[in-house]
Amino acid sequence: MDRSLQNTHAKLVARDIQRLTQSPTESNSFSLLGGACVSRVETVGTIVSRDLTPKFLKFGVDDGTGCVTCVLWLNQLTSSYFSRWDPDTILLLASAARKQAAAIRIGAVARVRGRVGSYRGVMQITATVVVVERDPNAEILHWLECLRLGQSCYRIQS
Amino acid sequence: MANTRIEPGVPITLQELYPSSQFYKEAVSLRVTGMLSGYSVETAIGVIEDGSKSLKINTQNLRDVSFRVGSIYQFIGELHIEPNNEAFLQARTGRNVDGIDMNLYRKTIELLRKFLKEEGNSNMAE
Q1: PANTHER family this protein is in (chain B) (predicted)?
Q2: What number of other Cβ atoms are within 10 A of residue A43's Cβ?
Q3: Which of A121, B35, B80, B105 is deepest in the core (most CB within 10 A)?
Q4: Closest alpha carbon within chain B to A61
């Protein structure tokens, strides 16, 4: 299995994110049509749903090929996961997450980077960075990059 | 945290929206782009144009979008066919895309469909 994409954010359209399958050998890795193995992805699309809870913001990104659910965690100040982290770092992370959450609104186009995973049988992205795009051509350019990488890189069998 | 399935708005050009088209169906989710040629504040209905084709857009569900005639907008929503066989889009999202390269957009839609078709079945692929 090709592991060369393990440490990069693979640029994928939503349809391909939804078709990722769990790697039989690596717990946090997903295979694309039996080829490249990825754990992090990047996608660009229009935000079509937004569900804010005290712990996280769940939002849907529609890139025209599918809708992918993304989760941005907002519990940095209360989660025990961060208890051993440097307090200044936690404050920075919490502040950044809340700023990103405020910018996520329905109708905006966002670039989402994060870890891909399966929740109740559906692929979703646990977002680490969400940037709202202002360039009206951002989605078009992302589609073209996905096409180029899909044909030249991701489908290559190991 | 239940997953509610939302159908993607399939990107099309207004030229592809005619009665015998595969996209000209009740409740199909579409993404359309065009220049706003008219807008009624009373009814929240606008009309977008691309070349000689136009489409009515019902924007009553949209918030925080200001409409300016002559600007280019992109909408995602569901197509509805009226009894007189005229279609309108019930928009879920809308945004101003002034500065979009429409020629690149049209060409990229074609390439994307070809890619999706080659890589497996897709409701976007022809």
Answers
A1: CST COMPLEX SUBUNIT TEN1
A2: 27
A3: B105
A4: B8
Reported as a single tens digit per residue, the pLDDT across B16-48 is 999 999 999 999 999 999 999 999 999 999 999
pTM of the model: 0.91
Both tokens assigned to A107 = 């109708």
Burial label, A89 (beta-carbon count in 10 A; 0-12, 13-18, 19+): exposed
Which are the contacts of A99, defined by CB distance < 8 A and separation ≥ 6?
none
What is the Cα–Cα distance from A7 to B48, expressed in whole angstroms? 44
pLDDT of residue B4: 59
B94 chain-A contacts, CB cut-off 8 A: 107
Write the CATH number for B104: 2.40.50.140
Contacts of B121 in chain A (CB under 8 A): none
- Determine how β-strand A37-38 pairs with β-strand B10-11: unpaired
Residues 32-61 of B with CB under 8 A from A: none
Asked if B8 and A16 come within 8 Å (Cβ–Cβ), the reply is no
